[in-house]
């Protein structure tokens, strides 16, 4: 399935809701009011009102009498970052609830087991939140292969054009190997985004066969080979007990000289003590959008190492991008009104891995 096809009709926006006649399905938003004002602008409220009855109040808690009155009638709850947890008590106050649509990423800590056990449908916009992560990763791959960031710093230091020999002989985006660790949602999207470029893409993922990875335009190889032969190594594995610290001294020492390690997944996947030790050798570079802890302590060497690029967990949806997830959530409400399956429903049996 192609990158665009996987994202589906979230791009259609208003076209999705225009196919739906106004209904009396009761919808409520649950999230901090400040976030609701940024994520659901008047345009999003207008779209929602065209297909359902969202009322005019944003829930920030579930225990007051006024919140209980809303919950008593709500059929679809739209949540986002910072929403109060939906536990057994909240569920008991919402007897008509049939779906939770999360206009953000993970629902693992938002939805209690009782909700899943009650058969409530849960949908997450994690796929849409992953889109800017994939775009960030693509940008960093291209910039790092071209050596734009270190050359920029040298240019600034010299206040003159760096000598030609300062550039590495093989710098550039031509026939370089890009290694992706995990064919996760975001890993797959990065592979799709890399298709137009003259780059070799390899993926290490024990849960995907070679044919599935070949369909992404990539080649399946083992993790050790990926680490030791790739010019760019990009982490896209989920944070699970077995992935905590999976990138440690042994693998870091296998990185080829001049390589770049990119982490947009989770900081805990890398052993940061080992990472700092290996980065101090100057053999390779690192682009870290996530760290452990996050942000790094003020005295962390990561702040001062010249071969490290730190960004403050901004790869995911920021600014106007959060409205993509709002519109994706509204599209899901439209599907509920039409009696159609949810596009981004989280399978209950996989809630601890994909949610």
TrEMBL record:
It holds the Pfam family 2-Hacid_dh. Gene3D superfamilies: NAD(P)-binding Rossmann-like Domain. One of its GO terms (molecular function) is glyoxylate reductase (NADPH) activity. Keywords: NAD, Oxidoreductase. GO terms for cellular component: cytosol. InterPro entries: D-isomer_2-hydroxyacid_DH, D-isomer_2_OHA_DH_cat_dom, D-isomer_DH_CS, D-isomer_DH_NAD-bd, NAD(P)-bd_dom_sf. Residues 62-346 form the D-isomer specific 2-hydroxyacid dehydrogenase catalytic domain. Residues 171-315 form the D-isomer specific 2-hydroxyacid dehydrogenase NAD-binding domain. Belongs to the D-isomer specific 2-hydroxyacid dehydrogenase family. PANTHER family: 2-HYDROXYACID DEHYDROGENASE YGL185C-RELATED, 2-HYDROXYACID DEHYDROGENASE-RELATED. This is Phosphoglycerate dehydrogenase. It comes from Microlunatus soli.
């Amino acid at each position: 399935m192609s990158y665009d096809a996987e994202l589906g009709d979230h791009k259609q926006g208003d076209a999705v809701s225009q196919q739906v006649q106004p209904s009396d399905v009761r919808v409520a938003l649950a999230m901090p009011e400040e976030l609701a004002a940024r994520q659901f602008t008047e345009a999003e409220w207008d779209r929602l009102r065209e297909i359902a009855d969202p009322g005019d109040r944003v829930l920030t808690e579930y225990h007051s009498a006024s919140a209980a009155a809303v919950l008593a009638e709500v059929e679809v709850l739209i949540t986002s970052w910072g929403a109060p947890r939906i536990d057994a008590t909240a569920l008991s106050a919402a007897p008509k609830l049939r779906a939770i649509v999360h206009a953000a990423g993970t629902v693992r800590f938002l939805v209690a087991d009782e909700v899943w056990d009650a058969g409530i449908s849960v949908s997450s916009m994690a796929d849409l939140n992953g889109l800017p992560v994939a775009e960030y990763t693509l940008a960093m791959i291209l910039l790092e292969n071209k050596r734009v960031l270190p050359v920029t710093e040298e240019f600034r230091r010299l206040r003159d054009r760096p000598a030609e020999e300062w550039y590495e002989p093989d710098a550039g985006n031509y026939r370089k190997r890009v290694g992706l660790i995990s064919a996760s949602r975001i890993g797959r999207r990065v592979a799709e985004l890399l298709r137009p470029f003259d780059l070799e893409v390899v993926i290490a993922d024990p849960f995907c066969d070679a044919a599935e990875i070949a369909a992404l335009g990539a080649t399946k190889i083992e993790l050790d080979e990926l680490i030791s032969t790739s010019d760019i190594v990009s982490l896209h594995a989920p944070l699970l007990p077995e992935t905590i610290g999976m990138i440690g001294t042994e693998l870091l020492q296998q990185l080829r000289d001049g390589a770049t390690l990119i982490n947009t997944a989770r900081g805990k996947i890398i052993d940061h003590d080992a990472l700092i030790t290996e980065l101090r050798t100057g053999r390779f570079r690192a682009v870290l959008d996530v760290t452990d802890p996050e942000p790094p302590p003020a005295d962390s060497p990561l702040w001062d190492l010249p071969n490290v690029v730190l960004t403050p967990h901004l790869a995911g949806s920021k600014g106007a991008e959060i409205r993509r997830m709002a519109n994706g959530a509204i599209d899901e409400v439209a599907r509920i009104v039409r009696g159609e399956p949810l596009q981004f429903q989280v399978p209950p049996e996989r809630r601890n891995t994909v949610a």
